[in-house]
Every structure is written in structure tokens, then in C-alpha cells.
Design a protein that fits this description.
The protein is of the alpha/beta class. The protein has 8 helices and 5 strands; from the N terminus they run H-H-H-E-H-E-H-E-H-E-H-E-H. The strands form 2 sheets. The protein has a 3-stranded parallel beta sheet with strand order 3-4-5, with helices on both faces.
């Protein structure tokens, strides 16, 4: 979550983090949202996973409205059966909260059958809190140390390695 990052990385107080979040969203909602990039190999990975019959769902700490806009902009929305994100008001802001929202909204009663793939400790911790397996992705923002210390079940260095791993998992 962005407010947590402002506090953790920059030492902001709660008030400073809230102000920074407001300023960030002002920029992001108009321009920054279109400055994202899709990692090489992700469309092919999503295509293959969807064709294999897997149900793909997105959980993000980004506000859900922005997540949908980003996925639409990059023509990725159609891969996901559900897109879950944070609320703008902060009611649902942690990765744990977002995962719980996605599980509940989709009536998933056995979270142990779900694999969370993420690149930050919040993804891994959210998976653990919700009794899910996790794969840490090093092609994102988090480091191997961060993902290992958070308790990722498996860590993959690239999209290709993730694809190969997912091809071996029977569901």
C-alpha cells in the first residue's frame, strides 16, 4: 500500500503520508496511470494460463478503479475473471483486505487451492494471512531478500521461470 511505502521508505508521518497520497493520486489519475509498462512475456503467460482452464483474478493495492483502467488501456482485462483492488477511501487498503474481498466475492471457500503471485512482501504476507500458497516474482519491484523474508513458498527470477513452474502445477 502506498501510504505504508511513504512511511517506510521516506519516514513520513501519517499526515505527511496522507498528503503525499493525495498528491500522488492527482498526478496518477491523469497522467501516471498511462506510464505503466507490461512486463515482457506477461500477455503470453496470461493467454496460456487462461487457455489451460485456470481462473485468473487480480488483487492489487492500487485503487480498483485505476487497476481496471490500466488493464483496459493495455488490453489485459479480458484475461481476468475478477479484478479486485483497494478502495479510494481506504476502507479496503491492505493486500490482506483485498485478497479477502476477492475470495469472498468469488465464494472461494478453499484458499489453499489458490496461488498468489506477487512481487512484494505485502503479496506474500496477504497470501499467508489468507492460507494461500505464494510465488514471489523477482521481475517486479521486490528483492529476493524481501520475498524470502516474507515467506514466499517459491521465488522465480523471470516470467519464463514462472510459466515453466505453472506448467508443472496440477490443479
Amino acid at each position: 500500500p502506498l501510504k505504508d511505502s511513504f512511511r517506510e521508505f521516506y519516514g513520513f508521518s501519517n499526515e505527511q503520508a496522507e498528503t503525499a497520497l493525495i498528491k500522488y493520486r492527482e498526478y496518477f489519475s491523469k497522467k501516471g496511470i498511462f506510464e505503466n509498462q507490461v512486463y515482457d512475456g506477461i500477455p503470453a503467460l496470461l493467454t496460456q494460463q487462461k487457455k489451460s482452464g485456470r481462473k485468473l483474478m487480480l488483487t492489487t493495492s492500487k485503487p480498483e478503479i485505476f487497476a481496471r483502467q490500466i488493464l483496459d488501456y493495455f488490453n489485459l482485462s479480458h484475461y481476468f475473471s475478477f479484478i479486485g483492488g483497494a478502495t479510494l477511501g481506504g476502507k479496503r487498503s491492505t493486500k490482506t483486505d483485498v485478497i479477502q474481498y476477492v475470495l469472498k466475492s468469488n465464494k472461494i471457500e478453499n484458499p489453499s487451492d489458490v496461488i498468489m503471485i506477487g512481487d512484494r512482501k505485502h503479496d506474500i504476507e496477504g497470501a499467508q494471512t489468507n492460507d494461500m500458497q505464494s510465488i514471489g516474482a523477482l521481475y517486479g519491484y521486490g528483492s529476493e531478500k524481501e520475498l524470502y523474508e516474507a515467506g514466499a513458498n517459491i521465488i522465480v527470477p523471470s516470467v519464463t521461470h514462472l510459466q515453466n513452474l505453472l506448467n508443472t502445477i496440477i490443479y
